[in-house]
Amino acid sequence: MTPLSICRLALLSGQSNRSATGSSFDNVTGISPEILAALAAANSGSQSSYGADPLTARVSRRLAEIFEHEVAVFPVATGTAANALALATLVPPWGVVYCHHEAHIVVDECGAPEFYAGGAKLVGIAAPHGKICAGDLAPLLPGGKGVVHHMQPAAISLTQASEAGTVYRADEIAALAELARRHALGLHVDGARFANAVAHLGCAPADITWRAGIDVLSFGATKNGAAAAEAVIFFDRAKAADFEFRRKRGGHLLSKMRFLSAQLDAYLDNDLWLRNARHANAMATRLAGGLAGITGVHLRHPVEANEVFVEMPNPLIEALFAKGFSFYRWDGERGNCVRLVTTFDTAPSDVDALLVTARSVNRDG
Amino acid sequence: MTPLSICRLALLSGQSNRSATGSSFDNVTGISPEILAALAAANSGSQSSYGADPLTARVSRRLAEIFEHEVAVFPVATGTAANALALATLVPPWGVVYCHHEAHIVVDECGAPEFYAGGAKLVGIAAPHGKICAGDLAPLLPGGKGVVHHMQPAAISLTQASEAGTVYRADEIAALAELARRHALGLHVDGARFANAVAHLGCAPADITWRAGIDVLSFGATKNGAAAAEAVIFFDRAKAADFEFRRKRGGHLLSKMRFLSAQLDAYLDNDLWLRNARHANAMATRLAGGLAGITGVHLRHPVEANEVFVEMPNPLIEALFAKGFSFYRWDGERGNCVRLVTTFDTAPSDVDALLVTARSVNRDG
Amino acid sequence: MTPLSICRLALLSGQSNRSATGSSFDNVTGISPEILAALAAANSGSQSSYGADPLTARVSRRLAEIFEHEVAVFPVATGTAANALALATLVPPWGVVYCHHEAHIVVDECGAPEFYAGGAKLVGIAAPHGKICAGDLAPLLPGGKGVVHHMQPAAISLTQASEAGTVYRADEIAALAELARRHALGLHVDGARFANAVAHLGCAPADITWRAGIDVLSFGATKNGAAAAEAVIFFDRAKAADFEFRRKRGGHLLSKMRFLSAQLDAYLDNDLWLRNARHANAMATRLAGGLAGITGVHLRHPVEANEVFVEMPNPLIEALFAKGFSFYRWDGERGNCVRLVTTFDTAPSDVDALLVTARSVNRDG
Amino acid sequence: MTPLSICRLALLSGQSNRSATGSSFDNVTGISPEILAALAAANSGSQSSYGADPLTARVSRRLAEIFEHEVAVFPVATGTAANALALATLVPPWGVVYCHHEAHIVVDECGAPEFYAGGAKLVGIAAPHGKICAGDLAPLLPGGKGVVHHMQPAAISLTQASEAGTVYRADEIAALAELARRHALGLHVDGARFANAVAHLGCAPADITWRAGIDVLSFGATKNGAAAAEAVIFFDRAKAADFEFRRKRGGHLLSKMRFLSAQLDAYLDNDLWLRNARHANAMATRLAGGLAGITGVHLRHPVEANEVFVEMPNPLIEALFAKGFSFYRWDGERGNCVRLVTTFDTAPSDVDALLVTARSVNRDG
């Protein structure tokens, strides 16, 4: 009987989006050593508060360089805040935001976007593999635009990488952006796993953001090694004009901002964000490759980032439980799909240990 | 010419509440070493996210012991979030919250309480030395209670220690609580500097909270040594029933909660919160005592916590500027009152250096 | 060529829910003569304002008698206000309201329920003939109840008569109410055409409201002969405790309330509400019966109230246009379904004239 | 003992703004005969709903002529809706609206402006005779404009005629408008008694609106003879771009709009609005003139519209009560000021009857 290590728990635990705790398993990890060190280094002397410090300024400069564009950058502590504030800036209180029906903003934020936007509506669109495409959206538009009886189409929000662990390509985004342009919709990306998407595509960050028509990006760091740090990035500063007031009245302007910016600064320094993401992606690939060779096991979605959705026979799931592995079923209590998430600190040996166990269980079963 | 050290800047800089940056000078300090160490210590292994971790549980237990009462505890990252969420839980969208007219909630939170409470109204009451008393409030009540045309009196919010650096005594709070009880108002404390108040009074924390009739406390740590950590504390769990949903939809539920709780845990451990506050208070007393002996210098308010409001002749202010000290005038550009804030890491030598300079300037002037 | 009379326009005009004007064709009619007379009669002398007048009191008494139950009654001028205020009273800002996906609240109120409820979410359920049933809803529940990441299931809203012109029977409502009770959901009825439902069923109003488990009813009069009058009716006064504040701050408390109550009083007097509804229903039945006999014409839904949804060959639709009849297509520009609405003042001769034309067109075509 | 006629009640009853009913005594009157007749006349045939009818178009044309300017006109049923919607269009959710501290928007609308504007703040300014002037406001500005910690100055709202029955002159408004322009504030007029102001000044409506710098006017009719009709008038159509969506989601777009527009149409026809107002003003002048001659009676404010605030000895107030007159004291139970409101249908004989009684009481006392 394998004793259940904490690390193994993190690796293995897929989780139902209807679970009692709601944990996402790249959130059970800790802080990248480089980021922890940066927190300590930031703790020397006094610094201006509320973002008027040199570290915050440096984060803005770094992001402008990385994205090869002018940017307005607003650090916040949570992804929910980043998404809700970004969307509230894009849409009026009577606006409609289109997104995938499994998007975090529509499923897992307890109505934060609706709250921040003053009553806006999220419309979730069912589409395969976590990604919506222009063809899914076109039939819904213009959607009563200009008609006073209807909430007004106002924005599209994509999740990159998606909730299914897949990645939008630049041309897919451009097609959605063309639709957005035609109907005067804003275009937002929930990039809680943006680094994983860039790592997968090997593209320039610009290629899947402003060059493809994105207006604003929730640039995540928490799931990829930070303690609590995200940045809302606008590629058109004019559109960010009132963001600062929204952030402050949301209670999301940290007084000792330098400790939030220090995380982002270290995250961007020397490509840590990409290195962490590449590792997590590689572990997911290794895991998926191993699982794919086991009889009766099927990958539900292409594995392009750090999430592996696996359908496996119920006896195998039960056997893994019996062996001491702990995870939730993705489709609820009776489903046979689990989600496995890899992270910046997943060890290859952990992946291999899981595979050995699975093969052994399967062979004996 | 004295070169301006960062430390000296923090110490000296009083600041207008109409300044361009809005910085409060206990926010320019860093993190207490004990708290920074706790962050590093919390970074081992995986932990359940969103508050289901042992550190968060321990913070709740500690606070229950410290306050000698059952408590419902909700850590958040900013004082504005703590206040706005606490008040939104107490009052309906058409509720009126009474507070001092210089209270942070009414002056410095860009409408966060109004936003979280869905449109509630803050009524600021002018009263001396930053404290409202039952006598100030009684004439305003019942204030149209029950009359559909008027917003409904719903809560009182006190700032402890106050914005003027003074402290409410238990009997003063009890008198307000009696008024609150008679008119069915909730009673909230903005305790961004709660530790300084307890340190000043030398009382049990219970004496100036639930025993005096307080319903909910924003328990601050950020200004007193944390990086970004506050706790909303309800003394009646039933009143906190929907707080968790409000916190989540406000984007204030941190996924890696352990790093927020670790700060609070270290803050409470071995009385760090009180030790830090006692030091800051002592430095303010030392500063105030020294300044009081200088001709033409007057303390505007009693010095009971870590803030010193000083009126001084304009030539003295100008001379201090000329000497390289940097601070804002509290009453605007032409006023002759400055605010000096001491902190957990203010060195006695910094205080003395300021006093030497002031005396010298005064003598020569 | 038949000249197009105004009356005929009203009768014939079905309308797309994506049309530019959004008109519902029982809204193009005028005021029942009895109600107009009541307005004039109410205009003698002074009366207390804001609802403290005898007419308003009488409306409450009448409704208590008609519904055989204690009621808390709140007159308002529009159906959108009635629905939005009623739902806001039932659900928290993070609540979910389940309804049919074509419900007026989700399609035609520009986000009023979301606005009044402070950000709540409406989830539209696709189901045949405009009615949801317990079986549609059960799989969605408990829907994350108690999990902080998810908006919280809070209410069910039915439309009676439905948007498809069908009527919920008492047992259908009771099954939904049982589900609501089990999951602690409020139960609301949008009764913009409630009179038509009662007229169709021939039941006691109590049978399809509180006796079946309904908490609150938007009792419509405007579509059935009033100028602008609806009443929100709570069957449990305790649940209406804060409704008055919501109505006032929504700007829906009329100062000269007697002129709103006068409409409702006349509407209830001598069963005018039922007589008007019976007539409209009878005209719809006559129309549907006649159309059903025409080759190629199909009724989309059972005709149980005052709406007739008719699918007809495109040449027939075009021919009716050519003859001077004016109406919108229900499924958009290319659809072949139209909605015909009959009203309290539809003349049998108007119905027959339409049928004659349709038969003639069809025969020649 | 004089029996108390209903008419006399209306005339005499001043009322505390803290009263249990909140009635304003120009709201206890009925409908002008011309307006009632217009309602009946509008009830012939079908009309397009939601404002796409000829009467609504005619009201817009009439107002453009009367104000000698292009206008965007939005009829609504209540003054609270007009004010709250107008202000929400002018200011962001974190905006500050400056007004007189007795303004209806800040005292008597149960937070409707805060609700519609998504959390904005009203700042009431104490100033004599119900009118604020540029000198009152200038010291409060720029008021933290641009500083993220503070709610942002966004608009000024005047009440014309004021709550004290006084009238702003064009030059007074222009001075405020200059201040508004300098600080980029919107300028709104609550014109619940706008007709009384124009009647008093004998000016062109343009002179005290757009020519003086007003952006948007709540043009009242309800207090001056309509059943329930107000119009929000924008003098710059561009600023009204999203008003229609706000009105609809507020539940204030009437489906049978023609019956609201019919009231406004008749109100504007043949100067009824001015004729009614002139009569009410004349009755107030007659009343004030008579009262001024009585020993111990003092007018609190200049009488320029249809309200008379009278301070009188307590024995006189008591004697009037004893004689059967019924009214509220303006300053609460122990005050000796009463408010008397005259209306379009106040008879000179009613005024004289009151004066006779008062003189007789005084002489005997």
Describe, in plain words, how this protein is organized in 3D:
- 4 copies of one chain form a homotetramer.
- In chain A, the strands form 2 sheets. The first copy, chain A, has a 7-stranded mixed β-sheet, with helices on both faces. Chain A has a 3-stranded antiparallel β-sheet with strand order 8-9-10.
- The two termini of chain A are 16 Å apart.
- With 365 residues, chain A is an alpha/beta fold.
- In chain A, helix 3 runs parallel beside helix 11 and helix 12 (272-292) runs parallel beside helix 14.
- Chain A is built from 14 helices and 10 strands.
- Chains A and B meet through helix 1, helix 2, helix 4, helix 6 and helix 10 of A and helix 1, helix 2, helix 4, helix 6 and helix 10 of B.
Q: Roughly what is the average pLDDT of chain A, rounded to an integer?
A: 90
Globally, the shape of chain A reads globular
Largest sheet of chain A: 7 strands, mixed
**Helix-strand makeup class of chain A:** alpha/beta
Please compute the radius of gyration of chain A using only Cα atoms.
Answer: 21 Å
Total helices of chain A: the number is: 14
Q: What share of the residues of chain A does DSSP label as strand, in percent? A: 5-15%
First and last CA, distance of chain A: 16 Å
Please name the two chains that share the biggest interface, counting residues whose Cβ lies under 8 Å from a Cβ on the partner chain: A-B, 58 and 58 residues
In terms of quaternary structure, what is this?
A: homotetramer
Low-confidence stretches of chain A: 1-23
SSE run of chain A: HHHEHEHHEHEHEHEEHHHEEHEH
